[in-house]
Structure formats: structure tokens, C-alpha cells
Specification:
0% helix, FHA_dom, SMAD_FHA_dom_sf, mainly beta, FHA domain-containing protein, 6-stranded antiparallel beta sheet, Cell_Proc_Reg/RNA_Proc, elongated
């Protein structure tokens, strides 16, 4: 089921299933999703089902509607997009997310061979190919140091749920890193990653949930 995960200051407040053709967001109580914040207009934005996806439209709000850090008037939502309204973040989760998302949980997994552990991976599913680029992340510390995870899906989420989660998204123009969940934010080459997706270059160093990784681009 399509849904929005609503968070404030890195903490998840609630999840809202998108069951209607039109879902209104705003400060007034008659909205489907009420966001009680003075930076939010009475009727701020609307989500409308379009085919198998959703389109979000700003309703001439005072402070605007942002997707992944960029102001929009009307835009189709892609799985993993983060809608910013005031101080609130609403992450769009598509019903078909497992068709193109891999989750990498940064914790010890059962040993596959004596003395060897790997990050836990979601079951493999069919990948969607976006462009000719391919990439991976190499774990640099911990018991899984030296292991590589292929970024074969459109979206790969990394981290510890409830603690710190980020996503690497594969688009025609390359790969980008986005903070998803947690009060602590990931670092890219020592710099904190804020709301807007940050473009990744081969060799970039990512720090997330106590794990250091290197982004490797091929092709």
C-alpha cells in the first residue's frame, strides 16, 4: 500500500496510508493529513492519484512545498522522495517498493563461513535498470570490513531502523545520498548530509550508524 511516513526533527510521528484519490495536507482540521504548524498553510498541498502513481501539487501555500530540498509546484512522486512542508518531512513509500528497493541493515548477520559475517540484505528481487552506470559500497570497518554491496536497485536504504537510515538513489544522472530517518545524520567526506540529496562521486566516504563505507562507481 502507498503511504507517507511523517517525521519531525528526525523522529517518525506516524504513517498515513494513501487510500483516497485525493489526499489534502494542511493546518486546518478538515485536511486528510493535518500538520499543526504555523509555517504550514491552512490548505497547503494535495496528493492526487495519477495512474499507478501519485502527483503532489502545492496549493499556493505561503511557504511552499519542497521535494528533496527543491521547491515544486506540481510533481510526480517517486518511491523514497521526501516532501518537506514547514519543519515536517513526509517520505513517500510506494506500494511496489520491493520491485526496486534493496535494504542493507548495518548490523552483524549470521556467519556464512567460519569467521566471516556480512551485512544483512533483503531478499533479491528483479532490478530496474536506470542508465548504464553501476555502483557498489565497500564496508571499511567492523566485522564486515572489505565486503561490497552492489547497488543494483533504484533505491538502496542503509542503516539501522529507528536509529539512523539513509538512501542511495540511482537516477539517469547518477547516484545521490539522502538522509531518511534518525536524529543523527550521515556524513559524506566528513560533511553532514542535510535534507537535500547529495550527488555521489566514485571514492566518496560515507559514515552511517557507526559504519564507514566507500562509494565505488563503475561503467
Amino acid at each position: 500500500m502507498n503511504k507517507l511516513i511523517v517525521s519531525l526533527d528526525g523522529l517518525v510521528i506516524k504513517e498515513v496510508a494513501l487510500t483516497k484519490d485525493r489526499t489534502r495536507l494542511g493546518r486546518r482540521p478538515h485536511n486528510d493529513i493535518v500538520i499543526d504548524n504555523l509555517a504550514v498553510s491552512g490548505e497547503h498541498a494535495v496528493l492526487q492519484q495519477s495512474g499507478e502513481g501519485f502527483v503532489i501539487e502545492d496549493l499556493n501555500s505561503t511557504n511552499g512545498t519542497y521535494i528533496n530540498g527543491k521547491a515544486i509546484r506540481r510533481q510526480a512522486l517517486v518511491h523514497g522522495d521526501v516532501v518537506e512542508i514547514g519543519k515536517y518531512r513526509l517520505r513517500f513509500v510506494a506500494a511496489e517498493a520491493t520491485d526496486y528497493e534493496t535494504t542493507v541493515t548495518l548490523r552483524q548477520a549470521p556467519a556464512t563461513r567460519a569467521g566471516e559475517t556480512l551485512p544483512a540484505l533483503a531478499a533479491p528481487v528483479q532490478a530496474q535498470v536506470v542508465g548504464a552506470l553501476s555502483a557498489s559500497v565497500r564496508v571499511l570497518n567492523g566485522s564486515a570490513a572489505g565486503r561490497e554491496v552492489q547497488l543494483s536497485k533504484v533505491v538502496t536504504t542503509l542503516g539501522k531502523p529507528g536509529v539512523q537510515v539513509a538512501a542511495i538513489t540511482k537516477r539517469p544522472g547518477g547516484y545521490s545520498l539522502t538522509h531518511i530517518e534518525g536524529a543523527a545524520r550521515p556524513r559524506l567526506n566528513g560533511e553532514i548530509v542535510w535534507g537535500e540529496p547529495v550527488h555521489l562521486s566514485s571514492g566518496d566516504l560515507i559514515e552511517l550508524a557507526g559504519t564507514q563505507m566507500q562509494f565505488i562507481l563503475e561503467g
